Amino acid sequence: MSLKRIVLLWCLWLPLVVFGQGEQAFLSKMNTYQAHRPVEKIHLQLDKFAYTAGETIWFKLYNVLDANRWLSNLSQIAYVDLIDPKGDIVDKVKIPLVNGLGMADITLIDTLVEGTYRLRAYTNWMRNDASDYFYDQNLTISNGRSDEVIASYKQEGNQFVVQLNDLKKAPLPKTSIRYTIEKNGSSLKKGRLTTDENGKISLPLAADFADAKLSLSFDNAQKSTVNKIFKLPAIESRPNSVQFFPEGGSLLLGGMNGLAVKSLRPNGKGIKSTTYLLTPNKDTVAIVETNYLGMGSGLLFIDEQVGLKAHTVFEDGTSVESELPALLSSGFNMLVNNLGADRLYAQVNISKDKQNNQEIYFLVQYMGRTYHVAKQKANKRELTFFAPKASLPSGVLTVTILDSDMRPLIERPVFVFKNAESILDIVGQTNAKSYAPRKKVDVSMEVGEATDTVRYAALSASVLDITNLKANTALQANIYSNLFLNADVKGYIEDPGYYFDQTVKVKDIDQLLQTQAWRKLDLTASLDTVKPAYAVEEAISIKGQTRKVGRKSAFPNAHVTLISTKNFMNFIDTVANANGDFEFNNLLFPDSVKFIVSAKDDKGKKNIDIIVPTVEPPALGNNKNWPDEVYGVNKLMEEELLQAKAYFAGLESQGLMEKSLVIESITVTARKPRSKASESSTNLNGAGNADQVISADDLSTCATLDMCLSGRLLGVMFRGGIPYSTRGGGEMQVILDGMYIQGDQLSSINVADVASVEVLRNSNYTAIYGMYGGNGVIIITSKTGKDAIASTVAPLGMLTIQPQGFYVSKTFYKPIYEVDSTQKLNQDLRSTIHWEPNIVTDKAGKAAFDFYTADRPGKYLITIEGVDFNGKIGHKTLEIEVK
């Protein structure tokens, strides 16, 4: 559904209550604003949550819209980033979306540092809101390929002790360790240590080291560099903490108040507790107990100004005394009852001085989209409102109370859940409950009800060996927790799957929402529908500006051409506007493709600078799921790591997987002859594949590069400092660090900065450059990259760019153990047994897939997730056993 159509449909809707023109205009403006700013939410179904280097992260992306969760037709592009424990993006993919659906994979290279990684997904449109609402999931990644070291750690008094062993549990004695301690981007300390005869190092802790990152770097027995990252503890143990959140934002004298409690361990996770609310005389006025996640709520009546205190006893026996938030004698508060099946109730309490007989408005809305509205006179202490749940969507909504001038007084998030309208019922079954190794498993499924008019659904499925899995899969994030909660709640949610395990725990979700920030619209800000900063992306585009040479002023109306280096006959033309801005739209190309952008004036002159700005990704920020970060992952996942290592060895022996990158690099270094061409060469044929190569060592001391090369290049003659081909006499194309420059600019290049010069004259080398290679090509590579020379030599009318293209997905390898099949594994130790990303049910709601069991006996978990065309969300798990 297009954005324009959404705006039209939603603007036609108005609350079915009679209001004045000013009130109606405000409500209409809210709805119009939301219609112009629909909310996209992303879920990724992964094959699993714990990996090891060498494996592949397989995922299916679901992009849905607003509180109705229809598959989005807005964004046609999504981005997925893999972020390492240091907070750097180590891999990123750009995915095409069709009807809100996409799929891709990320291969985990051998040199990854073990630790907790983040997988982040978003669309360009989602950047108009806070990155708190991006998909953001922790993954644990071990490394037994290039690492092969098990690191364990502990605190002994004021010392942080790290134990290093190899995969055979032998210690690493007398190993030189380089270490760095960093916090908030600043280096606190660095130095060297050496392990003792037992493979241990000890680092003294300091007060300012608490929560800092300790990075270790050393060489393992195979002489490859290994990096480890740890989070340093505080010198002294820190106490548990407790926070109080009055319902509606304040505690009001003279009536009933709601109070939510959140109790936390020092590591950011919840702890069960009991809080006693006491008067100065130690009389108990209320008791609030929390669940194991540290959240609870209760009611207390406050009829006079007394100094209430809180005494909290934690599950571990410790306790703390706390002050409650200040008591107000003037103002408003709110009590919400959301446990009824048919109605959402809200009681608004008003102090005596605010009972002015003016209108009070009650709204239930999602980012301005109003689903229910009512009003009453502020003429008594308590006003009761209700909204029929039949008119509300499922999910996190906002209850807003406004005064007579439509200014918000109180806001509170609520979670509404209607099973029949929200949950896609998935009935799945296998052709047996238990199987022998290497046997075929048939999985069939049916979605929806026979009475449904539409039963089409997009699904995906993973099959995972959970025999030795330590984590509780039921508590992991899933499509329910991501699209109903995480996409609209700020901050860390512990055990997100808990809220949807077995039943939907509405009461627990309500307590979560009372203690966390949520996605909401600032009604005090302007609701004008201005153009957002980030547009909906329907296709890849390349934008830039043409400028006058050496100046920031625009070069208007330049003729701009975009040429693919993969096929020089494939080009697109456009004309820059009066401000020099140009854009190439509706592009479709895979990743790693280079393009040439050229610009000319009406007379064909290239005296133009071309600027194509780099698209910066959203700021990474801190990991909101930091309490789930773990360190020493190789130790925690030792059994899985060794199993994966054996599995990889089997794949390598069958030629289905390359050997470790570290081993390959050693082999290549030993056999590959040294090339005179720089490894940084942008030669499209490959570095050194040229008719002639001159290295820095071959260049004599000359004032300019054209003087050094004159008379030394075969088939090249220089006239006025410009290189010409002796074959045909045409001017040769000069390329400097990938940039196409004019021949007369050779005189501007400092010879000392040149790493190599490659000359291409024969057609087998020049053909790849198309029309630019007609008279031959001279490729110059600087010693230290583009900044060494490019800063002094500005290419005129030409620029080489490499924008991010679409990732081309791999196909999941599926062994088939039939008599005549060639897709067999000699040793089958898979942990991800199967990945099926593209399941579409038929008009009867049915679909099926199959896979083969592996060699190890144990339990398999089949997880099926997806969305139907009515916005219903589905999650189903099945278990089978291999004997």
List the helices and strands and how they pair.
Elements: H1 3-11, H2 21-36, E1 40-46, E2 50-52, E3 56-65, E4 70-71, E5 77-83, E6 89-96, E7 101-107, E8 115-122, E9 135-142, E10 149-156, E11 159-166, E12 176-183, E13 186-194, E14 200-204, E15 213-219, E16 225-231, E17 241-246, E18 251-252, E19 255-264, E20 273-278, E21 284-289, E22 295-302, E23 309-314, E24 319-323, E25 327-328, E26 332-337, E27 343-350, E28 359-366, E29 369-377, E30 382-388, E31 395-402, E32 408-416, H3 419-422, E33 426-430, E34 434-435, E35 440-447, E36 457-465, H4 479-485, H5 506-514, E37 540-548, E38 559-564, E39 567-575, E40 581-587, E41 595-600, E42 608-611, H6 633-636, H7 638-653, H8 661-671, E43 692-695, H9 705-709, E44 716-719, E45 722-725, E46 733-736, E47 739-741, E48 754-760, H10 763-766, E49 777-782, H11 786-790, E50 798-801, E51 832-840, E52 846-852, E53 858-868, E54 873-882
Parallel strand pairs: 2-9, 18-25, 34-54, 46-49
Antiparallel strand pairs: 1-3, 3-4, 3-7, 5-6, 5-8, 8-9, 10-11, 11-14, 12-13, 12-15, 15-16, 17-19, 19-22, 20-21, 20-23, 23-24, 26-27, 27-30, 28-29, 28-31, 31-32, 33-35, 35-52, 36-51, 36-53, 37-40, 37-42, 38-39, 38-41, 41-50, 43-48, 44-45, 46-47, 48-49, 53-54
Helix pairs in contact: 1-2
What's the short story on this structure?
This protein is mostly beta strands and 883 residues long. It has eleven helices and 54 strands. The longest helix has 16 residues, at 21-36.
